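Troubleshooting log. The previous structure file for this entry was overwritten by mistake, so regenerating from the original sequence record. Sequence copied from the archived sheet and checked twice against the printout by T.R.
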Amino acid sequence: MNAGLSGRTVVITGASRGLGQALAESFAKEGARLGLLARDGAALADLAAALPTETVAVCCDVSEPDSVTAAFARVADRFGGVDSVVANAGITLGNKRAQNLPVDTWRRVIDVNLTGSYLTARAAHPYLARSRAGRMVLVSSVMARVPRHGVSAYAVSKAGVEGLTRALAVDWATDAIAVNAVAPGFFNAGMGAVVEQNERYREQVLVRTPAARLGDVPELASAVLFLAGEESGYITGHTLAVDGGYGLD
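Regenerated output below.
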């Protein structure tokens, strides 16, 4: 068990499925209390009931400021505070070259992935500051540095998340809050499941990946668990690539 997580209260956004669900399961095994946030209330309730730890599940749209603020207040009211936050909620919509991307699609992706990460951080700040060992972990993507065709909004939103990580690290250092990001490559869960199911896409990814395989979720979870725990306090403003070498120049 990770001694840096036992007894900590951790909030995870986008927790109802994919990587968010897997992260919730990993944190639960380490003895963390969990605030689970997502739009799908039924899926959250099912997940919360299955986890071997104390949980509170809250329906939340990270692109809506009032929704995020209310969700954090509810978690803090239940557990007495918040120690770590994983801003995992994210979407990708369609696959179109930039000049053909509808403006509404662009705005929705930016609203959820980038503005949603900011609103999550903004709502989390007073609780993390009171923790005096606050940890904020944002989720970027290898696409922030090595975009594929047709993912301009997603790639830009994740590049923005990495910039936000550095800006928050500077702003929050005196509050004893460490702010970092992980940049996943292609995993066998979440959005990466599309790669696993499409043989042509999978081969394109594997040819570029020195590790020559997709990642296993526990490999990503271990990086997030470390950055969210007490031992990572002197690491801040860093984006940790967990991509099997896909993003190497």
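The domain at 9-190+216-233 is CATH 3.40.50.720 (Rossmann fold). Archived copy saved in two places this time.
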